[in-house]
Design a protein that fits this description.
Elements: no helix or strand
Length: 82
C-alpha cells in the first residue's frame, strides 16, 4: 500500500492556523475537502528510516535492514508539515 498525502483540508493552503477555511469561513478538519482545495506549495520531503514513524519499533517491516538513509515501501511519516 502506498502512502499519499490526501486532498483534504489539512493539506490545503486555505486552512488557517485555527482550523477555519479561509474560503468558506467554517471550521473544518481532515475529513473535509472541497472543489476549491489548493495543495500547500511546498511539503518537506525527507523520506527515509530517520523520518519513519515505524523506525526501530515492532511495526518496522524490515528491522534487520532498516538504517538511516534507507527507504522502503512501508515508510510512514512522523509528521506531514508544510
Amino acid at each position: 500500500m502506498s502512502i499519499r498525502l490526501a486532498s483534504n483540508c489539512n493539506n490545503c493552503e486555505n486552512l488557517s492556523s485555527n482550523g477555519v477555511c479561509k474560503v468558506h469561513g467554517v471550521k473544518v478538519n481532515d475529513s473535509y475537502t472541497c472543489d476549491t482545495f489548493e495543495m500547500k506549495a511546498a511539503l518537506k520531503d525527507n523520506r527515509n528510516c530517520d523520518s519513519c514513524l515505524r523506525y526501530e519499533t515492532t511495526d518496522c517491516a524490515n528491522p534487520q535492514k532498516a538504517a538511516p538513509g534507507m527507504l522502503c515501501s512501508h515508510w510512514a511519516p512522523q509528521s506531514a508539515n508544510a
